[in-house]
Specification:
The protein has 399 residues and is of the alpha+beta class. The protein has helices spanning 2-7, 13-21, 27-42, 106-109, 112-118, 129-142, 154-157, 160-168, 218-224, 290-298, 300-312, 324-349, 357-367, 375-398; strands spanning 49-58, 68-72, 77-91, 94-102, 149-152, 173-176, 182-184, 190-191, 207-208, 216-217, 231-238, 241-256, 259-260, 264-271, 278-282.
Length: 399
């Protein structure tokens, strides 16, 4: 904070701390505007996608809002941390975060004294991470953000209610699932069993009728389908060369409360140079092209890169704040910084594709502290960055 106080005219460390922790400016209005600006810059209802994911922030003590012993993805274990649920937007390689929610564990939501100390608004109630995610998806849609599909990892994709709710809303999704997910390849008959004797209660629960095929594990399906059903598909060019994958798709009925759910696509993906299989479910049309399925299937990569941008460039995780207002203000300003960097890299590199968000960050660090800088120095820096990436790409192609 003191570093910025030295740069921003007329400011001080105290005034900047007040702006983050106590000032009454509305972060929700800023987030709404970020979504509108992202829509104007890179929005696309055919190629754009939104993605839900979470990020954890390790913290000490018990006073920081929402902190609890819970799974911390950053550490890969259960530990003391805060968890934020985020919504990201992706179009091609362009990506940024456009919304956030702080997950408030039930122990926090029900503790009145802790809520008051941290400034949690009275209207905030306990919501699961998936409920927060759905809330953000619907808000983005209603705010005019154009997207062709929603991507989610298995934490959210393994929840039938969330997939079904999105389907009812007419929203296409592609959801990672675990390998031990059960599905039916053919729709089994269901019904209420007949009473087998005059003793006991009459059956009232709908079940799969005896004699119908059993559900199977998606992992077993991947092992049993013939090699001819795996189709090699080009995904995109990368710095390491062309990315190809093998994909197999088939319609299935996921098991939901021991009954068959809605028919959807099971997507099995096996990237080149790896034997690992990725399992996904999607309500995309059954006749969707494999190229579009491959594009959807791999799009989560970019939201992971967006988190790298946020934490490595925009200070997303760099804070020491305890209050509800402070957390939301800091995260919102980080998302605003991400959008500013995206805007510059997009406008400058739109035709050449030279500049990355990281390049822009380094350029700003080079020129902002100086009163004067040389154009030749800046041009040399850009050329050196591009040549280094191009050289790395070519060496991988040779391999």
């Amino acid at each position: 904070m003191s570093k910025y106080a030295q740069i921003v005219p007329g400011s001080s460390k105290q005034s900047l701390q007040h702006m983050i922790s106590r000032s009454h400016w509305r972060d929700d209005l800023i987030l709404n505007q970020i979504q509108k600006d992202v829509t104007k810059l890179i929005g696309d209802e055919i190629n754009g996608s939104i993605h839900i994911d979470e990020s954890s922030f390790p913290k000490q003590g018990t006073d920081s809002v929402g902190v609890a012993r819970q799974y911390c993805g950053r550490l890969g274990k259960i530990d003391n941390c805060q968890v934020g649920v985020f919504l990201g937007y992706v179009n091609g390689r362009n990506r940024t975060l456009i919304d956030e929610r702080l997950y408030l564990p039930k122990e926090w939501a029900e503790d009145l004294s802790r809520r008051r100390a941290a400034g949690v608004p009275d209207e905030v109630t306990f919501k699961t991470k998936a409920q927060l995610a759905k809330e953000m998806i619907l808000h983005a849609r209603d705010n005019g953000v154009p997207f062709a599909w929603v991507g989610m990892d298995s934490l959210y994709g393994d929840l039938p209610w969330l997939r079904n709710d999105l389907d009812v809303e007419g929203i296409t999704y592609i959801a990672d699932i675990h390998r031990d997910t059960w599905v039916w390849l053919d729709l089994p008959r269901i019904g209420i069993p007949e009473r087998k004797s005059h003793q006991g209660r009459c059956p009232t629960r709908t079940v799969v009728v005896d004699g119908e095929p059993s559900a199977v594990l998606v992992e077993d399906i991947a092992k049993q389908i013939p090699s001819s059903q795996w189709i090699r598909v080009f995904v995109r060019d990368t710095e390491r060369g062309a990315l190809w994958t093998e994909i197999a798709t088939l319609p299935v009925y996921p098991r939901e409360d021991d009954l068959p759910g809605r028919r959807q696509l099971l997507i099995l993906r096996r990237d080149e140079n790896t034997n690992n299989v990725k399992y996904q479910l999607s309500n995309a049309p059954l006749d969707s092209s494999l190229s579009s399925i491959a594009k959807m299937s791999h799009s989560r990569y970019w939201i992971e890169r967006a988190f790298e941008d946020g934490k490595g460039i925009a200070g997303l995780a760099d804070y020491q704040i305890r209050t509800w207002t402070g957390w939301h203000h800091h995260i919102t300003l980080s998302l605003l910084a991400m959008f500013a960097l995206l805007s510059i890299s997009y406008e400058v590199g739109e035709d050449t594709d030279f500049l990355t968000v990281q390049d822009v960050k380094l350029i700003l660090e080079m020129i902002l502290p100086r009163k004067h800088y040389r154009d030749k120095e800046l041009i040399k820096f850009i050329n050196d960055r591009y040549k280094a990436r191009h050289s790395a790409k070519m060496s991988h192609y040779k391999l």
